[in-house]
Every structure is written in C-alpha cells, then in structure tokens.
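Worked example 2:
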Amino acid sequence: MSIREILLGNPGADNALLATVDTGQSLHRILFDCGEGCLNSLKQSEIQSIEHLCFSHFHMDHVSGFDTFFRHNYNRPDGPVQVWGPEHSVEVMGNRFRSFTWNLHKNQPGEWIVCELRGEAIHGSRFRTREAFAEAHELPQKSLERRTLFSRPEFRIEVMALPHHTIQSLAYRIVESDRIKICPDALQRSGLNPGKWLQGITISDYEEGQMIEVDGQSLSLKKLREDLLTSSAGESIAYLTDFCIEKDTDAWQEAVEWLSGTDKLVVECQYHSRDQSLADRNGHMTATAVGRLAADSKVGQVMLMHLSRRYSREEWAELLVEVQAEFPRAAFTNHWNF
C-alpha cells in the first residue's frame, strides 16, 4: 500500500491536494478543496475517479473550482460522490446543485452524499440527479469516533476542526491501516506448506478463536498469526489550511497529538513572521509557526502551499527558509520549480 499526493495549483494562486491511496488491488482518490483552476492539470478520467471531496471551509479560494468538478461528475453512473465539509455543507452544496437549470435530468444516474461535521456528530443528506437535486434526503446521524469520518479496511479519513478567524476550517488526515505481512523466515521454520490458507490468516475479520485447516491439521488462527505475521504502520498524510493556533495553548497541543508521527504534512504558509499582525488579523499561520508545529508534531516531511500573493517569488523562497529554520525537512512541491 502507499499514498501518493499531487499539489494542484500554482504558488500565490488557489491550491488543492489530490491524494491517491494505492491498496495494491485498487486506487482510491481523495480531493481536498477545489479552488479556481486547481483541476485544470487533471484529465477528465482523473476528475471522474475522485471518490471523496473534502472541503476545509467555503471561502471562495477553496470552492471556486467546484463547478468544474460538478460538470464532470453530476451524473456519475458507478456510485455516489461523497462530499465532506464543515457545518452547513448540506445547505451550501444543495444550493450549488440547484443553481443550474435542470430539464434533461429525468432517468439520469447520479447520487451525491453530502456530510457535515457538527461538533462530535456527522450529519448527512443524499441528493439525486434524477430529482434535479430538489430534495435533500436526510441520512441517519453518526457519532464522530476517534476523529474518523470514513473508514474501510485499507485506510481511514480523520478530521479536526481548527480556528480560522471567526469560523472553523477542517483539517484532514489519511491514515493507512497497519501493513500485515507473512514473514518468510517464520513460515519456513514452521514447516507448513504455503497455500490459500495464508491469505486467510491476514484477514482481520476472522475471529481469533477460529481454527483453520492447514496440511491436514486443525490449527489455531491466533497462534498462526502470532507465529507467522509481522505488522508495520501504514503511511499517513495530513492537509491543514487556513487556520491559526498558538504554541503553548490547548489547541496547539491537541493538533500536535493528532498529527504526531504523520509521514507528510501539507500545510498553508501564508505569512512571513514579520507580518505576524496580518496573520493574526486574518486567521493564518506564519512560516515560523508552521515550522514549530511540524517540529513539535515530529512529522516526517512538510510540503508548503497556499502562499500569500502579496509577496514576490523571492519572498516566497524566504518563507521556505523561515520554515526550515524550525523544521529542515520542508519544501515546496517540485513542479513549482523553486
């Protein structure tokens, strides 16, 4: 398994993140935000393969490219499009869906499931293309457990609400499940012959007390797992944008604990530290604060994005230097050519 990421958009312009979870058997694409022009570099087939669209908030620079996404996916035939976002997402998305004229929609496929975070609860509604998105069919409320919005056996999507001036901005994290593998040396020592039974002992749904047949013997599944399996942590990537938290506060410590050990942090870097007052006024982080957050969280790498267009290209390069003073393993994405 692996997680690949592409930062969309240019420096000083709207940015978004496209992450692909490769399970070895299937690809799962998750898009974080959808600013103006962010999808221009993607093929139509790539846009149509995105399963989850996760909005941090609904400021224009994070949602202005949604019409492009919607145009390619409004009648997707092979399953619903899942949208996640902050409180009022159902209302906001419903208004976007209905802002077009619909008169050729009958019998067309297409479903959209929109879920919003309200405190520790997830509220959602289903919209159907064949109904011209006229009705939001309310879904059962779910509790947010361990910050998990969505999970499947191979990975999960987590969420954390961060302050952005007077509103909340949602931060997201993709976490792969632990990688369970057969240890070849242990298998050889066991004297057991390889076979389809090996796949069975790696399936977590099997109960520990179960017995399975191997080479004509009835063996304990629990004992086989203890003897033959090795486990290692999967990859993880976090997306944080448009937020402002201060060191030595509860919000800072909460973020550090959540991000702890994340392999890659994709994070905004709006302001130079000399412009701290602007950062505070607009609810953004300075470069120094971003570096300190990464260092405290002990993340593996940092990719910077969402740079203020008030600066020149030379000043953007200086932002990177400021972050690296606190956290050396920070960089811009390669295609920005810094």
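The chain has three domains: 1-178, 181-232, 244-338. The radius of gyration is 23 Å.
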